[in-house]
Amino acid sequence: MAPVKFCSILALLMTIVYAVNWDVQTDLDVYVHSDDGYYSWEILTEYRYNACTMYIVNMTSQKWQDESYVDHPIWWHFMGVAVPDEDNITYPDAGFLFIDGGSNDPYDEPPEENEDENIAVCIAAVDLGVVGAYIKAVPNQPLIFLNDPQQMSRKEDSIIAWTWRTYIDDPTPDPTVILRMPMTKAAKRGLDTVTAVAQEKAPFTNVSRFMVTGASKRGWTTWSLSATDRRVIAAAPMVFSLLNFDQTLMAHYQSMEGAWSFAFDPYYRENLTKELFNPKTHEVFDIEDMYTYKERLTLPIIEVVAAGDEFFLCQDSNYWWNGIPDPKWI
């Protein structure tokens, strides 16, 4: 077969995207909603702002893998849960969650009273008349993987790239090694914690529906949480427009005239940019690419795009916008 014709067939196959609705249970669903016995939370302190109490919480979301795979398997997060006074709650069943990143270690101190995040979330909660919250350290990082010959202390894309390489190289791969699993579960446990803390401290609340948001990898997690937890009724993913991986990644490659942005360096270092036609890469994409879940994404979505992040093209949405149900805005 002529090389050009063969490449054309491969490109056509890459445009076929597996899609799931709520009737199909995926590996991501199973992991996110399973109870591993590690979930817990504790209120550390509280702060008062105008018409609002901010509860600072230490929450353990899960045990991801074990010490034979990664040096930090038990994930924990500082959270802030802002509960307006009863007279300032308009929607006692509603809340919002901001998914944040950052690093964590056992010596980290809880967020202090005058940190911007505490003040901003309290102001927004009172203005909206709902319970508001943030969750930090999604993902927990840095991480060192035991079978990494470099024993590199990894963060962000370097972690994601390593988990993709681990899956692809394993003859009998375990989908739970992919970082989308624990990141989404951490956010899901964040929702659980918001409801529980608010109900304990303000019994007049019963938070059962959420708007969620986050940026970059947390924008990715905003998409994946929206696709796996029906309590999410609105979403504003920020700085993550990479859906429909096959077409968007091909567009990235072509726009650079056969090269990749420096932002793809962690994936390049793991030789993942050479694996786009590997069937096992497409197994990873079935989990990681939120376009797979487009039939579930019927909630209102505001996609916030940033032009200064060279991981993304400004025209990324051209490759998935029409496939995502309305209502949506960009």
TrEMBL record:
Q: Where is the signal peptide?
A: 1-19
**InterPro entries according to UniProt:** AB_hydrolase_fold, PhoPQ-act_pathogen-rel_PqaA
Keywords in alphabetical order, please. Signal
Q: Does the record's keyword annotation contain Signal?
A: yes
Q: Know the name of this protein?
A: Uncharacterized protein
User: What species is given as this protein's source?
Assistant: Paralvinella palmiformis
- Lineage per the UniProt record: Eukaryota, Metazoa, Spiralia, Lophotrochozoa, Annelida
